[in-house]
């Protein structure tokens, strides 16, 4: 072991320093060859399968997005179609309701007219019957008045003949 710095300097000057930063013997090309072989090996073993998996995943995502977009478009078209059909059905239902209301109003009007005609007929029949009864009563009264007047006349004449 070297205890003093002077001895160390003497020892270092006697020993020859080989290599340096770059050593151009057989190790440099061997290291370059190892690096290239390692690069190709890693490329075939790790990077290509990972790349294939990533490409497959990308393709799957793209297909899924395309399918989802197509399904969304189809759903939107169906929604619009059904909304239009629903709107048409509502319009037809409104037409049917209006038509039914018109028909019901016409039926009610006809029934009211018939009821009014029946009432007028009943009134005219009652008026006619009352007139017949009135005529009959007048005739009966007239006969009674004639009978009473004849009786009064007879009694008056009888009374005058007695006096």
From TrEMBL:
Ranges that cross the membrane: 28-47
Compartment annotation: Cell membrane; Membrane
Pfam families: ATP-synt_B
CDD domains cross-referenced by the UniProt entry: ATP-synt_Fo_b
Record's keyword annotation contains Oxidoreductase: no
Coiled-coil residues: 72-103, 131-158
Keyword vocabulary terms for this entry: ATP synthesis, Cell membrane, CF(0), Coiled coil, Hydrogen ion transport, Ion transport, Membrane, Plastid, Transmembrane, Transmembrane helix, Transport
Family classification: Belongs to the ATPase B chain family.
UniProt function note: F(1)F(0) ATP synthase produces ATP from ADP in the presence of a proton or sodium gradient. F-type ATPases consist of two structural domains, F(1) containing the extramembraneous catalytic core and F(0) containing the membrane proton channel, linked together by a central stalk and a peripheral stalk. During catalysis, ATP synthesis in the catalytic domain of F(1) is coupled via a rotary mechanism of the central stalk subunits to proton translocation. Component of the F(0) channel, it forms part of the peripheral stalk, linking F(1) to F(0). The b'-subunit is a diverged and duplicated form of b found in plants and photosynthetic bacteria.
Subunit description: F-type ATPases have 2 components, F(1) - the catalytic core - and F(0) - the membrane proton channel. F(1) has five subunits: alpha(3), beta(3), gamma(1), delta(1), epsilon(1). F(0) has four main subunits: a(1), b(1), b'(1) and c(10-14). The alpha and beta chains form an alternating ring which encloses part of the gamma chain. F(1) is attached to F(0) by a central stalk formed by the gamma and epsilon chains, while a peripheral stalk is formed by the delta, b and b' chains.
Protein name: ATP synthase CF0 subunit II
Organism: Dicranema revolutum
Recorded name of the encoding gene: atpg
């Amino acid at each position: 072991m070297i205890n003093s710095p002077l001895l160390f300097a003497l020892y270092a000057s006697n020993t020859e320093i080989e290599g340096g930063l770059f050593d151009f013997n057989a190790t440099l090309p061997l290291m370059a060859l190892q690096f290239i072989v390692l690069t190709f090996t890693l490329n075939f073993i790790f990077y290509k399968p990972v790349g294939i998996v990533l490409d497959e995943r990308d393709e799957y995502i793209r297909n899924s997005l395309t399918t989802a977009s197509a399904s969304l478009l189809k759903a939107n078209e169906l929604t619009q179609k059904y909304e239009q059909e629903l709107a048409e059905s509502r319009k037809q239902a409104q037409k049917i309701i209006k038509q039914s209301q018109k028909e019901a109003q016409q039926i009610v009007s006809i029934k009211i007219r018939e009821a009014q005609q029946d009432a007028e007929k009943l009134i005219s029949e009652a008026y006619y019957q009352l007139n017949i009864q009135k005529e009959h009563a007048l005739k009966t009264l007239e006969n009674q008045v004639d009978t009473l007047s004849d009786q009064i006349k007879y009694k008056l004449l009888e009374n005058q003949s007695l006096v």
